[in-house]
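Recap from last week: sequence in, structure out.
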Amino acid sequence: MQLELADPYVVVYKQIHAVVDDESRWVELMERSSCYGGSAWARYHYSNGPLVKSSRNLGEWFRYMIRPGKPIWILSLPRDQPASSR
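Predicted structure tokens:
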């Protein structure tokens, strides 16, 4: 079976689980990958986010220790850049 995606930037997982501590201070997110390369790409980028404390993978499993919250993203483009690029 071959998986064809309309959007090549979609990462598909076989399973996703989340475990939260008793005080809701930490979430361990566990993703079982269907595509190691896509999951490794996602891990690299997620790990640079403000809510991810640590990440690791073992085989097809990718695990993240996350502090719940809303990230603050500051994105800006130069004013002279066309609106279609924003």
